[in-house]
Amino acid sequence: MASSERLFRLLDMPQDLTDAPEAVDLPPIAGRVIFDDVSFAYKDDEPVLSHISLRAEPGQRIALVGETGAGKSTIIRLIARFFDINEGALTIDGYDVRQVTQASLRSQLGIVLQDPFLFAGTIADNIRYGKLEATQAEIVVAAKAVGAHDFISKLPDGYQTDVGENGVNLSVGQRQIISFARALLADPRILILDEATSSVDTTTEKIIQQALDTLMEGRTSFVIAHRLSTIVNADMIAVLANGRIIERGTHEELLAKRGRYFNLYTMQWAQAN
Amino acid sequence: MIERRSIYRRLLGYLKPYWRQVLLAYVGVLFAAVLNLLVPQIIKDAIDNGLAAGQASALFWAGGVILGIALFRGLAAFSQRYFGEWLTHRVAYDLRNHFYNSVQNLPFAFHDRSHTGDLMSRATSDISETERFVGIGLMDLTATILLMVGVIIAMLLESARLSLLALAPFAVLTITAVRFGGTVRPMFKAIQEQIGVLSELMQESLTGIRVVKAFAREPHELAKFDDANDEWFERRYTVIKTWAKNWPFFTFLVTSSIFLLLWFGGPLALSGEITVGSLFALLSYVLLLNGPVQRLGFLVNLAATAGASASRIFEIIDTPNKVADRPAAIALEKAQGEVIFEHVGFAYRAGLPILEDVDFYARPGQRVALIGPTGSGKSTVTNLIPRFYEATEGRVLVDGHDVRDLQMSSLRRHIGIVLQDPFLFSQTIAENIAYGRSDATMGEIIAAAKAARAHEFTMSFPDGYDTRVGERGVTLSGGQKQRIAIARALLADPRILILDDSTSSVDTETEHLIQEALDILMEGRTTFIIAQRLITLKSADYILVLDKGRIAQRGAHDSLLVQGGLYRQIYDLQLRDQEEFVELMIRD
Known about the structure:
The complex is a heterodimer.
Chain A (H helix, E strand, L loop, with lengths): L1 H10 L21 E9 L5 E10 L4 E6 L5 H8 L7 E6 L2 E2 L5 H5 L2 E4 L8 E2 H6 L7 H10 L3 H6 L7 E2 L8 H15 L3 E5 L7 H15 L3 E5 L3 H5 L3 E6 L2 E6 L1 H7 L2 H11 L3
Parallel strand pairs in A: 3-10, 3-11, 6-9, 9-10
Antiparallel strand pairs in A: 1-2, 1-4, 4-5, 7-8, 11-12
Helix pairs in contact in A: 5-7, 7-8
Chain B lengths: L1 H12 L5 H33 L4 H50 L2 H6 L2 H43 L1 H48 L1 H6 L3 H53 L5 H42 L21 E9 L5 E10 L4 E5 L6 H7 L8 E6 L2 E2 L5 H6 L1 E4 L10 H5 L8 H10 L3 H6 L17 H15 L3 E5 L7 H15 L3 E5 L3 H6 L2 E6 L2 E6 L1 H7 L1 H23 L1
Helix pairs in contact in B: 1-9, 2-3, 2-5, 2-9, 3-5, 3-9, 5-6, 5-9, 6-8, 6-9, 8-9, 13-15, 15-16, 18-19
């Protein structure tokens, strides 16, 4: 009795986001993302984002910077519709994200998270997760494009190397690169990236930077940016504070402003010396 | 066969400490069996002396005795159930503790290979399958066998000729039942293994749920799970099929025994060679056998499952722990923090060296930075110091002692580790900080938190130090978790530190705080830092540049830059940016 109660309570939990009854499949998109006066709160009266307006043209690279809790992660979560906005409108190629099926939306989004999670299985299986019907050749092409091929072929079992639970046999950097290959294979129009600077050695870092460039090439990208190179090369940098965009522009424009962005980066990089 | 017998013998070993309870339970079993055997004799008496002789008093007397027997049987059954259940759960308790201890003590290498889901299913499902047999199941099996033997003896005494006839089907039955057990045992092991696969799958897709959702792969995960669940059902179904095929045959055998008794015994009773009561008693005995024989099949099943499950539990318990204390291991009471690597080599598998000929000397208090490409062996070097793994060649010395000659707990007490993704337990912040030193006072905890720059944000929570951090500490940011980990290390006050200087995606202010905290932590301790940052490399006493498991270069930052080589390459590729940006900012 007690056990079945526990089970049923779990089964009866409301599924938080479901497709709208009249939801349509999102047709192949170009990748135009528009935030029109969007506000969002996880809990009532604790606004996380207020009046965000942001426009990304197909292929543009948007860097989101700001302190922890400024709302960067929330913005990217809204694009993937992990949560629904409370106010305003969020459209992709003119479609309101709430009016399209989740499967069709996410299949055109590539999401690369900070902590690259690999499933138990081979490296090839993990890359294939991005496109289940991919051939071995496609997998190798994707791995080569992100610079993963070299270290994979050096492993005794190559692409058939088993990555243990949580991919313990690989370094964090290698796992990250594999997760890039996975995203590249999925070939999404919109790329969402939570950039991590975690424990990656400098050589791997260089590979990662090149891989990121390959990955973002020709895709609309939203990046929670930590790398200088990512930020400098962005078409637009949005500086967030307390759920609002307080500055926006290119690297040069923002430096010239001598505002929050200037402060953030003088602090971060001056410390290096 | 021998392996199987030894598994059951080991299981019985778990009952040994509780021989008193075992004795009480089994006295109950014996008592109940004997009382059961008396009933047909009393019926016989009632028929021959009561009904046949027309003496009502004999019937009353028989009824009274049967009532009395029922009373005593109740007592026996109570002691049987009570102590049986007690033993069941007590053994489960011990088995679980034993299992958990083993898992805790197994080396890193084991945890690299094993799957949490599978371990969890062994710890839960397999243990509950085993416990049912060792307690109640074994007792029922004993009761069943006792009763069967008793019935056979009583029948033979009643009429040897008729009994041999009636028992012939039971001989066949026993053989089939035992063989049946042998057939289903591997099937049960296969079922339990599949349960392990299911838990593994579930655990994996739950841990990776963000990736699953990001790629909209829920249907794929569902299909994978469904396949595995189907496989589980198939395996279960195979057992059920085998069972169903055998079951009617079992019942048929019992019925045929009754048939034989009536066919051959009836005429004997009619002719007066045996009494009617005697024939009735024989029939009662056969019917008495029916229950136990039915149970026998079930119990053989239970024993088979338990054997399979127990072997999965013992597999883990018996995994050799290569990194165990040596018999003459000494305790390192006080440490200075000197670390020497003498031509150290390491390989997980023979022929695939991870480290080769790593040789260096760190004086107490020195700061050693490790740098090199991914897979060059930096983490392996740091893993050898606390003896998470053992060097396969050469020696690692701490304060002049080979780490293999030291008691592991005493060695690790002097080593603090702060990695960039620290794990916090689902406990309060204070408990997490005091994890390395459970005897710490609140004052010490706060002092450590202050030094680690963790005090301020802790106090900003309504519950302060009593704030609980969720599973994996999800309510805290990466930077906050890191500072709690630093406070934890400060409180433990180790002589040797292993650090990772990368800060995972924290804002600049937090990064500054973490840097301050780390500086305080490193003060006066021998420190090994897996370095990503120029500032760390510059402040190190010396840098080890690793490449493909060997030390390619060593020295201070400035001299390494002049030397050229791998260090210069790394510098040009990555580190230089950090300086250039500063220049850019100054020019601007």
